[in-house]
């Protein structure tokens, strides 16, 4: 999915977005089943969630998506159908989030396995690594003054350890190894999928909600949603800023072609 979206960004021709990293997206959501041969989709509809504070970028990316009538992802063939926008929720000084894509804490270097290292969520290191990556990305964005950056010192991630311990008791995993490609180099990283509460300034909450949390967010990791929240109950029409383009909306849904089980991935 990351390679497909990157290809669309380049294909559209707007060079200011070729290396734009302040966006986030989920995996394809639908009725699935895991087998030895891969992930099988049994839904006629699948959903891709896109997020960015830059409406111009979202317009541009969605426009490229809808110019692609047939999308091939592995053995899965889908076509864009419609898109809608979620109303922005009211974020507080502390918010309980769920991960709708895995959190990655460490960015590995070439020929280095450190990205796979397991870090217990109930430690300061887990929270500190997320703090460092978030503040670094916020500073690089250029959207915040030095005074604002200095005021963002309050930051704490508190995982829901009851959830984690229940998974352990059921012998289920909340941390797995994932592959990610950067500059055509394959890396392996550890991703965590768990609910947590974030204590931070409103600007920080808004940034991670729209841009993702952790490393490789522009490659589909670290996407968040509020816990106990129903996105389907807070959608609204999405109007493109540029006149003359069909006003789709920003949570994108796509319809898949029914396939034989041995064709699906």
Automatic annotation (TrEMBL):
Please list the residue ranges annotated as the CRISPR associated protein Cas6 C-terminal domain. Answer: 88-226
Q: Which keywords are on file for this protein?
A: Antiviral defense, RNA-binding
Q: Where is this region: Disordered?
A: 230-265
Q: Does the keyword Protein biosynthesis apply?
A: no
Q: Which InterPro entries match?
A: Cas_Cas6_C, CRISPR-assoc_prot_Cas6, CRISPR-assoc_prot_Cas6_N_sf
Compositional bias, Basic and acidic residues, is annotated for 251-265
* Entry-linked PANTHER family: CRISPR-ASSOCIATED ENDORIBONUCLEASE CAS6 1
The record's section on NCBIfam families has: cas_cas6
Family from the record: Belongs to the CRISPR-associated protein Cas6/Cse3/CasE family.
Q: What is this protein called?
A: CRISPR associated protein Cas6 C-terminal domain-containing protein
What organism is recorded for this protein? Echinicola rosea
């Amino acid at each position: 999915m990351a390679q497909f979206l990157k290809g669309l960004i380049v294909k559209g021709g707007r060079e200011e977005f070729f290396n734009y990293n302040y966006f986030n997206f989920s995996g394809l959501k639908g009725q699935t089943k895991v087998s030895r041969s891969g992930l099988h989709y049994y839904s006629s509809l699948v959903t891709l969630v896109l997020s960015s504070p830059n409406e111009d970028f979202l317009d541009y990316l969605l426009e490229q998506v809808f110019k692609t009538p047939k999308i091939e992802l592995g053995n899965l063939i889908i076509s864009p159908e419609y898109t809608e926008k979620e109303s922005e929720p009211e974020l507080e000084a502390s918010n309980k989030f769920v991960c709708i894509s895995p959190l990655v804490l460490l960015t590995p270097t070439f020929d280095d396995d450190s990205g796979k290292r397991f870090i217990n969520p109930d430690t300061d290191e887990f929270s500190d690594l997320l703090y460092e990556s978030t503040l670094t990305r916020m500073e690089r964005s250029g959207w915040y003054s030095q005074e604002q950056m200095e005021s963002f010192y309050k930051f704490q991630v508190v995982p829901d350890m009851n959830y984690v311990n229940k998974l352990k008791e059921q012998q289920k995993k909340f941390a797995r190894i994932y592959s990610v490609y950067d500059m055509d180099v394959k890396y392996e990283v550890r991703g965590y999928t768990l609910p947590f509460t974030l204590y931070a300034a409103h600007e920080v909450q808004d940034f991670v909600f729209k841009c993702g949390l952790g490393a490789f967010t522009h490659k589909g990791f670290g996407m968040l949603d509020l816990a106990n929240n129903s996105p389907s109950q807070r959608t609204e029409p999405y109007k493109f800023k540029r006149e003359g383009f069909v006003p789709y909306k920003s949570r994108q849904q796509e319809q898949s072609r029914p396939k034989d089980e041995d064709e699906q991935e």
